């Protein structure tokens, strides 16, 4: 007998974002209230890969 295969959940479907009143970005997991990241700025990873981090 074969098992039903489920498609893996995509990260984009599982994550949410919002901006705080101070302008920070919060990225959170919709299924886990303890999984979130808050940042006040973003890094362009293309620049980091090409030149390394700036000091």
TrEMBL record:
Pfam families xref list: DUF7331
Domain of life where this protein originates: Archaea
Protein name: Uncharacterized protein
UniProt source species: Halosimplex aquaticum
Lineage: Archaea, Methanobacteriati, Methanobacteriota, Stenosarchaea group, Halobacteria
